[in-house]
Design goal:
The structure holds two protein chains of two kinds. By secondary structure, chain A is mainly alpha-helical. Helices cover 73% and strands 3% of the residues of chain A. Chain B is of the alpha/beta class. In chain B, the strands form four sheets. Chain B has a six-stranded mixed beta sheet with strand order 5-6-7-3-8-9, with helices on both faces. The chains are: A mainly alpha, B alpha/beta.
């Protein structure tokens, strides 16, 4: 995966951007806003994680959106513009539009979560929330580390049994009993290992007084500049999205939409990861041509 | 004296309800910069001694005598000071990894000490550079190899700037290459930084070249304390239990040798000088002997049909994962001990569990003769125990494999497990006992094929010798034994044939002698020692016989 410049900014900034994009996406069912959000999320994901990743998501998200359209069109029974009638049920344009919007919003939300994953690795998340809940983040880190270990051990236990017993497993009752015993073994092994881990923690001074927290991030001037720009943009977009959504109703009939330029700031804001990269490339290009 | 960093005087320690003290009258004085090896059989008190010095890990029990670390009792020191000044590395690398990523793991101790950002960054950075960890410092600890995890363990105590490093069997869980690398790193820390090292370990061949002090414990008492040559002289003249753990070069000597060889290079010089100084021995004898068949030459072509055979196996753990086995073939015959060797990630264990029927190959097949009982012992023997007492565990499969309590008693006796263990919880058994108990459970099923994953891991020299004897016995009784191991010296002693796996393919299969004599680097210590000087040998006994015959 390529590393993008946006991911070099402070975790708080990355988190805030994802949170605002998600929030705006959640708050508006207005078709154009949904479309803009979906488009931007798709562009960001392709930019951050590659086309393959986007393709794998769209393969199941698009059918769901159409399914939502079909379901709402068939069963909502609202709206004035009848498209056609199926078995006595009127399928209206408005109901279809509502279903499609809802389906696309769901898709956009999921794509934004994928973008979040691409922008915020585990360390960044733990850094952000570790400062709020120091003990909680330590416990979380340990859980993250121990879960795969536990699963591996479980597989080893099952393999040890399977190697000898192979096909000669007993009936359902015997197998259930066996599974219970194996779970018990897993518990005992984990307990024993965790005692050793507690020893190791104490040996390195755990519990000897107030802790500090090692951090790989710091807030730079560039972060302040970007935060200012994104903050202002977010306010403007929030206002525009609010206006667009509040003057919009699906039923009984779809109203006339705002002029197209009203949505441009929203799209530009959501594509920030792209702009950050582009701006940096333009700058290096200019500097190089001057040199 | 100011130079003394650690002084133990008349140290005696008893665990509650123990019949004899775990440590009895230990005296030890370490000067700053010493590299001291604590050795002795399992249960001789090595771990107890190390843990008593580290207050955070001190066991509960009755202690007499004094421990003085830089002028004070460590238990009376400030908790932070003793956490930092006394670095402790435990036996299993995994258990000491607390955090998820390498940089955070190294920083964990500093966070506990409450250091500020600038100090922490500097210390983590310099430690990572010094130990050569920079390329993988952002990785998850779970993705590292055992050797790398061990280096992380060392880094995370070094970063706290200890004055004394205590290491409890640090290399017993590592493959020989990683073990040698780790010891070299430890020697560097000792030599370049002057940090005092106190290490408990069975693998004396790797440690003695770097040590200047040895403490030999026998049943809690100090049987020897002093320099390395004196230690070797004592072991060789008195024939103690640690004899088998000594470097093979030293074992050839008698105690009255002026300078006993410790490294392979010293051993080769010593061997060459012996052969030159003796007029009866020379090139002629060597040439004549090597042209003859030799008492231990074995034919690779075996008449018997394989009991279990893997043909062109291709295996991967998931559709997205790379192939671990890429057309691996292997056959195990009755009456033989087969070893599969190879580096980390070469597919050794994967092949073993494919033979066991646990890993189902995507291409190729595993063919068994008739209805075979195949038993597999995983690296961690604990995974085999599912009941609350050893007795219940051993009885678990009694219906399925038709055996009774008298069979259990017989197997217990054969594996040298006292009956008194039957009522204890399997996890309360000591490491060597637990492994033998796991073997007992498997042997009760009367397997015709026994598959073992790294069976020599964590065993002392004595226990390894016993295991070799047992495997030979089982083979003689008509079982096929397949073992996967990193431990080439163990393989040389235990196996009849060796297969080397590399990049998912079994490249070479041959008799143990052909294999180790043919390899120049990837061979057992005895092979390295004898290569080109005397007719190549594989096991220590062969070398000793050969040397006596020539002289």
């Amino acid at each position: 995966m390529p590393t993008r410049l946006f991911a070099s900014h402070h975790p708080a900034l990355r988190f805030a951007f994802c949170a605002i994009a998600l929030l705006m996406c959640f708050c508006s069912l207005q078709p154009v806003c949904v479309a803009v959000s979906l488009l931007a999320a798709a562009c960001n994901l392709a930019f951050l994680s590659g086309w393959r990743k986007l393709g794998r998501q769209l393969i199941w998200l698009l059918p769901i959106a159409f399914l939502a359209m079909a379901a709402n069109g068939l069963f909502a029974g609202l709206g004035a513009t009848t498209l056609f009638t199926v078995g006595g049920m009127q399928v209206t344009l408005e109901a279809c539009a509502f279903g499609l919007s809802a389906g696309c919003m769901l898709g956009a939300v999921i794509l934004w979560f994928s973008c979040y994953q691409a922008l915020m690795d585990r360390d960044a998340f733990l850094y952000l929330f570790g400062n709020i809940l120091p003990l909680g983040s330590l416990v979380l880190t340990m859980v993250i580390r121990l879960m795969p270990q536990l699963l591996d051990k479980g597989r080893d236990i099952a393999a040890a049994q399977e190697a000898l017993l192979g096909s000669q497993r007993g009936g359902l009752r015997e197998r259930t009993r066996q599974a219970g015993r194996m779970a018990g073994t897993l518990m005992s092994i984990s307990m024993e290992d965790s005692i050793a881990m507690a020893d190791a923690m104490r040996a390195r001074g755990w519990g000897s007084g107030e802790r500090s927290s090692y951090s790989r991030y710091h807030w730079s001037r560039g972060d302040s500049v970007l935060a200012l720009i994104l903050g202002i943009a977010a306010l403007i977009c929030g206002f525009l999205v609010f206006v667009a959504s509040s003057q919009f109703e699906f039923y009984p009939v779809l109203p006339v939409l705002l002029p197209w330029w009203g949505y441009v700031p929203y799209l530009l804001f959501l594509l920030s990861p792209l702009w950050v990269e582009l701006a940096a490339r333009v700058r290096t290009g200019v500097e190089r041509s001057r040199a | 004296m100011m130079d003394d960093i650690l002084e133990l005087r008349g140290l005696r320690f008893s665990y509650p309800d123990a019949s004899r003290p775990a440590l009895d009258g230990i005296d030890l004085r370490l000067r700053a910069g010493d590299f001291c090896v604590v050795c002795g059989a399992s249960g001789s008190g090595k771990s107890t001694l190390l843990r008593l010095i580290k207050p955070q890990l001190s066991p509960v029990g009755e202690r007499q005598g004094s421990i003085t670390f830089r002028g004070t009792d460590p238990a009376a020191m400030d908790a932070r000071e003793s956490a930092a000044a006394l670095g402790f590395v435990m036996q299993r690398p995994q258990d000491q990894l607390v955090m998820d990523s390498v940089w955070h793991e190294v920083a964990f101790g500093l966070e506990n000490l409450g250091l500020d950002q600038e100090d922490m960054h500097r210390r983590v950075a310099e430690t990572a550079h010094y130990l050569g960890m920079s390329p993988w410092v952002t990785q998850r600890v779970a993705t590292l190899s055992g050797g790398q995890q061990r280096i992380v363990n060392l880094a995370s105590v070094l970063v706290m700037r200890p004055k004394l490093l205590l290491l409890d069997e640090p290399i017993s869980m590592l493959d020989p290459i990683a073990a040698a690398d780790f010891i070299a790193l430890l020697a560097r820390v000792n030599q370049e930084l002057g940090i005092t090292v106190l290490v408990a370990e069975h693998r004396l061949d790797l440690l003695l070249p770097h040590a200047n002090r040895v403490l030999l414990l026998q049943e809690g008492k100090a049987a020897y304390s002093g320099d390395v040559q004196g230690f070797l002289r004592r072991c060789l003249s008195e024939g103690s239990r640690v004899d088998a753990a000594l470097p093979p070069a030293a074992r050839l000597c008698s105690g009255d040798e002026p300078s006993i060889p410790v490294t392979i290079a010293q051993g080769r010089n010593w061997l060459a000088s012996k052969l030159v100084s003796d007029p009866g021995a020379g090139e002629g004898v060597f040439a004549e002997r090597s042209s003859s068949e030799g008492p231990f030459a074995e034919s690779t072509a075996s008449a018997s049909e394989p009991l279990i055979e893997a043909r062109e196996l291709w295996f991967r753990y998931g559709a997205q994962e790379p192939f671990v086995l890429r057309g691996a073939s292997f056959a195990a015959r009755a009456g033989k001990v087969h070893a599969i060797v190879g580096g980390n990630g070469s597919g050794k264990s994967t092949l073993l569990f494919a033979l066991a029927g646990v890993n189902k190959p995507q291409r190729g097949s595993v063919r068994r003769v008739g209805k075979l009982h195949v038993a597999a012992l995983a690296q961690d023997p604990r995974v085999l125990f599912v009941c609350d007492t050893l007795r219940d565990d051993l009885r678990e499969w009694s219906d399925r494999f038709a055996y009774d309590d008298s069979d259990i008693a017989r197997v217990m006796q054969r594996l040298d497990l006292p009956e008194s263990l039957l009522d204890s919880h399997p996890f309360d058994l000591a490491g060597g006992e637990l492994q033998r108990a796991a073997l007992a459970k498997l042997l009760l099923a009367k397997p015709q094929v026994l598959l073992l994953d790294e069976p020599s891991k964590g065993l002392d020299a004595q226990a390894k010798g016993d295991l070799v004897g047992l495997l030979h016995e089982l083979a003689q009784e008509g079982s096929a034994v397949v073992l996967v191991s990193h431990d080439l010296d163990f393989v040389a002693e235990a196996a009849d044939t060796v297969s080397m796996i590399f990049d998912g393919v079994v490249d070479t299969t041959g008799s143990v002698r052909d294999f180790f004599v043919g390899n120049l680097f990837y061979t057992c210590a005895v092979g390295r020692l004898s290569q080109g000087i005397i007719e190549p040998c594989v096991t220590f006994e062969q070398l000793r016989e050969r040397l006596e015959a020539v002289r």
